[in-house]
Design goal:
The structure is a homodimer of 324-residue chains.
Chain A lengths: L4 E7 L12 E7 L8 E9 L3 H6 L19 E8 L9 E4 L6 E4 L5 E3 L15 H13 L7 E5 L4 H12 L3 E6 L2 H11 L3 E4 L6 H8 L13 E4 L13 E3 L2 H7 L2 E4 L9 H13 L7 E4 L6 H9 L6 E5 L4
Parallel strand pairs in A: 8-9, 9-10, 11-13, 14-15
Antiparallel strand pairs in A: 1-2, 3-4, 3-6, 3-15, 4-5, 5-7
Chain lengths: 324, 324
């Protein structure tokens, strides 16, 4: 067997503010031979996500920093091309944090088996992966959304936001989305099926718009005992200093509202039930995957990542690394 | 019986920013004769509280605006001087929202009977009244404080803050207070019994100080699953526009923390159990009343209220209206 080359994207420099192409570098190394108990995966699709910006920084966060010249981390799915592991046969499909590279060696820990007969491989990174789980637990467990209530989703055209809106519709809620371009707004009220959406960057009076769309109350017209789930803050990730905004604590008091942060990892024990629900809705056609796949292989990953941070994606942003 | 005169403080003008003496006016009217089913109370002590600033404004809030030339509202305690009500005998003591006036007529609704043998009359406005209840439910129900945890109290030398700290100590927590003068800091670590306190206005590095006092984590070093109860925002009440502050949502995510607003009225069903606990702690000497009583009668109420908004009080600010 000829020696395979593994091309990777490594962290060249810690970004100052917004990441730029020179913060990444393309590297190559030979694919190592696998030992007993290991398997080799050829990566097919890579997911690029906002949290990766945190890993590029060495500030304390909930994710460990990637060392300089380390391979960028990221969830991916691929095909087992060689296996000396009893549980994973060559030819099967798996997903894990394989990083930004064409090949990954695994000992099977943290590996998820994917059945492409159930749903396309890419969905394991989107609606049937962390994206879908975050939407599911954020909306239903932390947010406690119930039929008849109004759900307002900011960042609604992003990967998690568009799934939150769809699950909220499945659960019988009225769903309003805010997004930053008119195309996204049209996408939300069209294909994705939101009840209403608006462009928060250009709308002259967002409060009045929300009052019109959600006469029963919403932020800053929070209802009594409203719940606000905080699961991501992409607009803040590239700032050198935290932005300032209005103090909302008084609204919290008046409305006895709850703002609660979440990390999807805290819900690991409940992943199976979420995946069962999400898969069911997907197969019934109620939950659309909403993916955007960048072609161009591993070299295309930095641009896809930077574009996603700039809000250029509709739904889940993936990069195709090889043919599945 | 000679006609009694009831002197009152009425709202003369809606304050622009900080209230000033000319926003109030002293008025007099005859005490009306009471009808069957009514009683007449001579007010002994009046409580002045931050929420009253909200009632002076006509902005939408959780309290109804006082009309221009209306009597200022406020909880007070006093003696029943005449009664045609079967449940309240002349000579007994009662508390309710009697307003800023010397006499009040009541039909008995919302009236609380106070036994001055159990605790001094003033405590019914402080540790054994709304102040104590707010501290109790905010700390134990919303904040879910448990033995061994660290409780940080801002506005710690105020009426609610100093009771929060004392209850937290009773429950076995470590208690850290922040306040705006060195005298308040000394009061907290001395008489009130906080473990530590600091002056947030003059300390050169509050984050470092908190890191030192609470090495196990605190705001902005929030612990994972930290709870922050938001029950009052006195520094914001006199602003014409909301102040801006750092965006904290990212900290909420990283720490899966919860900020939750509360209003004491939502806990009405549980008042009896809270009052039982608070009274027990008071009688065991574990909970100090921490009151500051302004002399000078009803005319002194505006200055006492303005002083309290300026943070001149230690603990609960009351005004003595008459001899009890």
């Amino acid at each position: 067997m000829a020696t395979l080359t593994n091309r990777q994207i490594r962290l060249a420099a810690r970004p100052q503010g917004f990441p730029k192409p020179s913060d990444f570098r393309l590297a190559s190394e030979p694919v190592p031979a696998i030992a007993d108990g290991q398997l080799l995966v050829r990566v097919a699709y890579l997911s690029v996500d906002p949290y990766m910006r945190g890993r590029m920084s060495d500030a304390k966060s909930y994710v460990k920093p990637i060392p300089i010249d380390g391979v960028m981390g990221g969830f991916a799915v691929g095909k087992v091309v060689e296996s000396r592991h009893p549980s994973f046969a060559a030819g099967s499909y798996v997903g894990a944090d394989f990083g930004w590279q064409e090949y990954a060696v695994s000992d099977g820990r943290g590996l998820r088996t994917i059945d492409p007969e159930v749903a396309p491989l890419t969905t394991a990174l989107g609606v049937l992966g962390m994206t879908g789980m975050t939407a599911y637990f954020g909306l239903l467990h932390v947010g406690e959304a119930k039929a008849g209530q109004t759900v307002v989703v900011s960042g609604a055209a992003g990967a998690v936001g568009s799934v939150v809106g769809q699950i909220a519709k499945i659960k019988g809620c009225k769903v309003i989305g805010s997004a930053g371009t008119d195309d996204k707004v049209a996408h939300l009220t069209g294909e994705v099926g939101f009840d209403a959406a608006f462009n928060y960057k250009t709308h002259p009076d967002v409060t009045a718009k929300l009052r019109e769309l959600a006469p029963d109350g919403v932020i800053p017209l929070l209802n009594v005992h409203a719940r606000v789930t905080v699961c991501g803050q992409i607009s803040q990730y590239n700032l050198e200093k935290p932005e300032f905004g209005p103090r909302w604590l008084h609204q919290l008091i008046v409305k006895r509202a709850r703002f609660e942060g979440m990390l999807i990892s805290d819900f690991a024990a409940h992943f199976p039930e979420a995946l069962r629900d999400l898969t069911g809705w997907y197969r019934e056609g109620k939950l659309k995957p909403g993916e955007q796949v960048a072609p161009g292989g591993i070299e295309a990953a930095p641009a896809a990542f930077i574009g996603m941070l700039n809000g250029q994606n509709l739904g889940k942003q993936l990069v195709q690394i090889s043919d599945a």
